[in-house]
Amino acid sequence: MANGSDGSCDHIVSRVSEGLLVKSFTSADVDVATGRFMLSVGEAYVIRSGLIDHAIKNAKSHGTGRDPMRRIVAVGNDATFGSRAYFCQKGTQMIPVGVAMPTILIDGMSVTAEHG
After folding, report:
1. Half-sphere exposure of 35 toward its Cβ, with a 13 Å CA cutoff?
2. Choosing a second label site near 83 at 20 to 30 A (CA), which of 22, 25, 73, 103?
3. What percent of the chain has pLDDT over 90?
4. Which three-class secondary structure state does DSSP give residue 43?
5. DSSP labels for 26-37?
6. Could you tell me which residue, 65 or 8, shows the higher pLDDT?
């Protein structure tokens, strides 16, 4: 995803009354037949009144198909490639992939988590 014009991560967080700042994902599962997905979150923080409040653990985000893309309300100007190596795998086939994405604000994602 290309950089947007909605400012830095801090600026976007300041707009959120209640939400979750996800810094990394550890894995993903997608059912291509139904479009359902589940993302395991590696590092995340609760946002309250535009401020980062506390860390959470064991968070999972889930949904269907393109729904999250339709709910993007802000795109930051801070895209960078992550330092972690990622791989896309199907069966015994595996290929390295890169991940670069700016901060995005999605309204109404479904998330489950434990307090950290």
Report:
1. 6
2. 73
3. 51
4. strand
5. EEEEE-TTT-EE
6. 8
Residue 104 lies in a domain: yes
- As for how many domains the chain has, the answer is 1
Its domain, for residue 50, covers 9-109
Largest CA distance in the chain: 46
* pLDDT(111) > 90: no
pLDDT of the residue at 115: 62
Residue at 102 is within a domain: yes
**What is the per-residue pLDDT across 31-42, written as a single tens digit (0 to 9) for each?**
989 999 999 998
40 sits in which H/E element? strand 36-48
Residue 1 placed within a domain: no
Strand 72-75 relative to strand 104-106, pairing? antiparallel
3-state secondary structure of 102: coil
> 4 near 79, Cβ under 8 Å?
no
Residue 3 inside a domain? The answer is no
What predicted TM-score, i.e. pTM, was given to this entire model? 0.77
The residue with greater pLDDT, 39 or 80, is 39
3-state DSSP call for residue 69? helix
